Amino acid sequence: MKLPAKRRQVKVLRPVQPYPTEEKEQPKPLYLVMQKVWFDAIENGSKTEEFRDGTPFYTTRFCNINKKTGQILSFKNYKTVILQEGYHAGARRMVVEVKGISLRRDFSVQLGQILERVNF
Questions:
Q1: Which tops the pLDDT comparison, 18 or 91?
Q2: Is the predicted pLDDT of residue 13 greater than 90, yes or no?
Q3: Which of 12, 56, 91, 106 has the fewest CB atoms in 10 Å of its CB?
Q4: Contact 80, 91 (CB under 8 A)
């Protein structure tokens, strides 16, 4: 059995950043690929948050950024997220409601109810 990747250890957490969420809804859903362990935990309801590193890649996916200063202006307004189990052909997918996004050191996507299941 393949073990999930280990996360970095955090010594000090910043307080949750109070960035506003933009009013305009994103035209496309957020798309995230994950390991089977975490996908199954979200499906059975034991995991209600998905964490992603606070890297520049995820900052551009989750936030609106001032192009001149590089500062975060607001969180993008995603209503749904498509979660996919790996990159293989015929991978299982779920469309899940997004309740909110927050940022400490890493991004946290609060998940709501599962709206649709594909390839189960």
A1: 91
A2: no
A3: 12
A4: no
